[in-house]
Sequence to fold (199 residues):
Amino acid sequence: MAGDEDLRQRWNRRHAAATGRPEPMWGLRRFAHLLPPGGRALDLACGLGANALFLARRGFQVTAWDWSDTAIGRLRQAARDAGLDLRAEVRDVVVSPPPPAAFDLVLVAHFLDRGLCPALAAALRPGGLLWYQTFVREAVNGERGPSDPRWRLGTNELLHLFPGLIRRVYLEEGRLGDPAQGLRDEALLIGQRPRAEDT
Ligand SMILES: C[S@@+](CC[C@H](N)C(=O)[O-])C[C@H]1O[C@@H](n2cnc3c(N)ncnc32)[C@H](O)[C@@H]1O
Fold:
């Protein structure tokens, strides 16, 4: 669709203009102790791929998808520079979602397509982990993240989007207490696909 192509080109321009080294997301750094020792990981809508690089450094076999060829080109270069082996591919993840039971870890940062969520849960192998962190409507600083509220999560929405996963970590602090502390403007879910013995 023409609208999608405009949006993809906008992302290409943003990724081309980005300077500095992007940081892995807060929820990945903070809860890195929950990572398994390795396995197949997917960074979906990876952008410049800071999370993909982090996971590759931790010994995962990483696949990273984004529809921006600029982002994927920059990520491949960053991986080469760091001596890391990862598969970065240009892919429209809405048109081509991940196949079922293919990954031990699926990570999504700052991307929201509600229709894709059942495929993301199904893409996990039994025991596999979903790491999902993105923007909420109840933000302290609404300037961070998308201006269109449709692309921000409602209250507790991540929990409702992934009802079949075991909730290992869920954070959504809203505007409570001291807004200078904690994870603000975003929600984080780390969920696990049950194994046969968990059900
Ligand atoms: C806000 S950026 C987040 C990038 C990265 N996950 C991060 O947190 O740094 C959103 C990303 O989603 C990508 N994107 C948007 N729609 C997409 C689609 N249909 N298929 C693949 N990637 C898409 C954009 O190109 C962009 O890189």
In short: The mean pLDDT is 96.
